[in-house]
Amino acid sequence: MKAIIVHGGAGRWGEERLKHALPVLKEAAEVGYSLLDEDPVKAVEEAVKVLEDSPYFNAGKGSVLSIDGSLEMDACIVRDNPRLVGAVIGVRRVKNPISLARIIAERTSHHVMYGEGAERIARLFNLPEGNLITDYARRRLERVREKLLKEEVGDDLSLMAKTIDLIRKYPDLFIGTVGAVATDGRSVVAGTSTGGTSVKLPGRVGDTPIPGAGTWAENGCGASATGIGEGIIQMLLTKTLCDRVAYGTPLKEAAEELVRRTEYPVGVIALRRNGEVVFAYNTDFMPVALKTEEKKEVEVYGVQGKSSRT
Ligand code: ASP
What we know:
globular, binds aspartic acid, single chain, 22% strand, four-stranded antiparallel β-sheet, alpha+beta, Glutamine Phosphoribosylpyrophosphate, subunit 1, domain 1
């Protein structure tokens, strides 16, 4: 059974941004679905690219910035069978980090590459570069810095704990990452791309590019996570989810239980080779778009605020 689900990030979404983001999210699901017969890896890559190219998501163009104003993007793509794993950490210029993750998986003998070495691979394969820092991202960083200063945050190393406090107090300042999971009925592919968390310390690596944390596919199951990466890493959320399903826990139960278990704001989308799809989140919003063989139209969820939490 063919299916694709995409997410635009867990968190608080303002009305205005949601209005711009939703058509793009639907387009990503359509684009991905239309490529499923050709190649599910391409389907996930192209769906994520649609979101990376939009300034309304925290990935590619529109990525959030580190505390010093720099941009460091991460991405990962995983296929269950035949096994494919590729991830990239901390790239600054590559327009579509998800494509670089795919190239690392398919064209190098490595799984994970970071920084300048990864950028060199991108240049070797002529991946487009771009100016990915938007005015919106700059303004957002200023607002977060202001709030942090008002909270009298003293030293940089306690920043992550303070950041989490800040997210609880001002959830609308933070925006999530993007991801897609798809199946053509034979293999399952998951992909995630992000600018990371706002006001992260330069050099911080989140869950997205850590295979098994923010992105994983195995045994006919795949998942992509969003939210504060530290919480996702602690649980190896996507790998744990796929393992539980392999040992017999229903997909929905596994996703909901893992999301409930953490105190961090997180969300996850997942699906199985048989076309069963799930999403779960403990934040106010997590916009998702999904297209399956059964329904002609793209369905959208996670946009009503708390009432639609799964
Ligand atoms: N999970 C991403 C990270 O921690 C950010 C997000 O999803 O909002 O880098």
